[in-house]
Amino acid sequence: MAVLLLAVKSLKNRWFTTFLTIVSISLSIALFLSVERIRHEAQAGFTNTISGTDLIVGARTGQVQLLLASVFRLSDTSNNISWESYKSIAGTSQVKWAIPISLGDTHKGYRVLGTNENYYKHLQFGSKQHLSLEEGKWFADEHGAVIGAEIAKALGYSVGSEIVVSHGSGDISFINHEQHPFLVSGILKRTGTPVDQTVHISLTGIDEIHAEVTMAEGHQHDPLAGHLEYDGHSELGGAESPSISAIFLGLQSRRDVLAVQRSINEYQDEPLSAVIPAAALQELWRIVGTVEKSLLAISGFVVLVGLIGMMVAIMTSLNERRREMAILRAVGARPAHILGLIVGEAAIIATVGVILGIAALYGLLIVVRPIIETYLGLFMTICAPSLSEVAVVLSMCFAGVVIGLVPGYRIYRFSLADGMTVRL
């Protein structure tokens, strides 16, 4: 205990160097823990994006491509699925519910998704949580739209606001469906998933705006033909006519997943792919995991540099302290006391740096969390440190002690005579 008190007083005498060393360690720890926290939250966000869905069906393509298009809305499907195929698959005895989705349009850069009431009833996220409305109601006809929480916040929309859908999935479109505006009928509660950045309209609405484009632009030289085609299209029953981008399936029993997947992959009427969301998510995480591991390695090297900087600071001060150590030896301090003094200083610096680094992490989370949620769609939870973070913190404290052994051993080898005859 006396050695530690002596170490604290020694550090106070060299407060400026000690302060800079503690700051470098705390910043490196904060960076490392921030990357670790972002990594865990990003992985949890991927995993929690969709749950309770047994299969995702789309046109023949890779499972990651289909997942990115249908769940994350980050790309487009390779082709559409006919409504007849949807009815056939949804009517299979093993299928409990089916959610058709249609993509391909946007509103001010946000994706527009056509679907029906099954989307609101059966789609789940997180730990099998259902969607719920913050205000308003689910659309009742082809003129209604339900928007995600992020869209409502970013664009300032409320129930009753008018939305004009644009053709295409890019941020800029030259075709706006101004002839068929939608009115916001409801706003969904925040989910932390791509649902928050999606405009939901009915399949009938999707069908009508595209039919009107065909009538207005596809038959400019024959208005009567366009009118007849539109009328005939409407007679098909609106939502009974469109082609769709993908289907979310919930099965009666999860034991039938592989059997249903195989039957869909072998579907005769058109080439289809059925993917298991969990398997596709794992493959997607393996792809992006390389970047995650690279960031983790970089932050690990930053921590290592901080520890080496602490060792260098202590080593640099040894020559200045040789007379101090010689006096301590002369008044009866044993070599173990000298070693304990140096190691104690290193342990104190590492511990204080780790504590300040954790404090900096939580302070940073409080400040930047709203910004990350708004621009990255990543929801950072402020919670107690995880077991992995505790392990990192304890490892850092232990590493500080180990690194302190190097200058401690060197000062231990300084002899009394050498210390008393140091030339200034």
Task: Please compute the radius of gyration using only Cα atoms.
Answer: 32 Å
Envelope shape: elongated
In the predicted model, the low-confidence regions spanning at least 5 consecutive residues are: 218-240
Tally of strands: 13
Task: Output the keywords.
single chain; 424 residues; alpha+beta; two-stranded antiparallel ribbon; 13 helices; 13 strands; 15% strand
Task: Provide an overview of this structure.
This protein is an alpha+beta fold and 424 residues long. It has 13 helices and 13 strands. About 5% of the residues have low confidence. A hairpin with a 2-residue loop joins strand 2 and strand 3. Strands 1, 2, 3, 6, 7, 8, 9, 10, 11, 12 and 13 form an 11-stranded mixed β-sheet that branches. A two-stranded antiparallel ribbon has the order 4-5. It has 2 domains: 177 residues, no CATH class; 221 residues, no CATH class.
In short:
Helix content is 56%, strand content 15%.
What's the layout of helices and strands?
Layout: H1 2-13, H2 15-48, E1 55-59, H3 63-70, H4 83-90, E2 95-107, E3 110-115, H5 117-122, E4 124-125, E5 129-130, E6 133-136, E7 144-147, H6 149-155, E8 162-163, E9 166-167, E10 182-188, E11 198-202, H7 203-218, H8 223-234, E12 246-251, H9 257-265, E13 272-275, H10 277-330, H11 335-375, H12 387-413, H13 416-420
Parallel strand pairs: 3-11, 7-10
Antiparallel strand pairs: 1-12, 1-13, 2-3, 2-9, 2-12, 4-5, 6-10, 7-11, 8-10
Helix pairs in contact: 1-11, 2-10, 2-11, 7-8, 10-11, 10-12, 11-12
